[in-house]
Amino acid sequence: MLIIFSTQSNKGTCISTYGFHHSKKYDHSASGRRKETDTISKAFYQLLLHRPGRYYGDVRRLLIRPDMGECTAYLPAMMMGLNTDICQRFELKARPVASIVARDSKLERMLQLLDVSLGALTAARNGNHENGKLRDHKVGVVKRALERGGIKDIEKSHPMETKGFNIWNVVPKWEKGAIPTR
User: Fold this and answer.
1) How far is 127 from 132, CA to CA, in rounded Å?
2) pLDDT (0 to 100) of residue 11
3) Packing angle of the helix pair 109-126, 136-148 (nearest 10 deg)
4) Using an 8 Å Cβ cutoff, are 95 and 87 in contact?
5) Which residues of the chain have pLDDT under 70?
6) DSSP secondary-structure letter at 69?
7) N or C: which end of the chain has fewer CB within 10 A?
8) How high is the mean pLDDT of the chain?
9) pTM, whole model, 2 decimals?
10) What is the 3-class SS of 85-154, one letter each residue?
11) Nearest-angstrom CA–CA distance, 51 and 168
């Protein structure tokens, strides 16, 4: 879960970005020594590169505040590489990522709020809002999140051009058990 604050002159905007992936479809041993943690870390990096980097890198300074944890621990150290990738891939002159600072979601109200919406979208993706596993008030939150987000199919990513709220469903480059060809 990430919060990306973007600044343009003296105005600030809060952008939340959600990425989903089917963890069981990945060959985590190919990701690195931390296995699933490295898979998720790489997904965060790609999410930052292809969503806020692509959409806002040319017009905003990005202040990235991921939830503190093992999967986001390396992100601050990767800021220079992320800026380089964003600039090269999207032909930008200025480095858009001003800072990456992990925050404890137990202490950050904005991350807690995002956790509720992410939980609702995850429940929708897993079908838990339709199979009786959730109480009525949580089903209501899920339905409202889908409605407000304009989400007709949680399994499909929004088109790459979609700015603002968008869903990105990540698919592994190779099938589980296959040898990576990089």
Assistant:
1) 9
2) 56
3) 100
4) yes
5) 1-28, 30-31, 163-166, 170-182
6) S
7) C
8) 76
9) 0.71
10) HHHHHHCCCCCCEEEECCECCCCCHHHHHHHHHHHHHHHHHHCCCCCCCCCHHHHHHHHHHHHHCCCCCC
11) 9
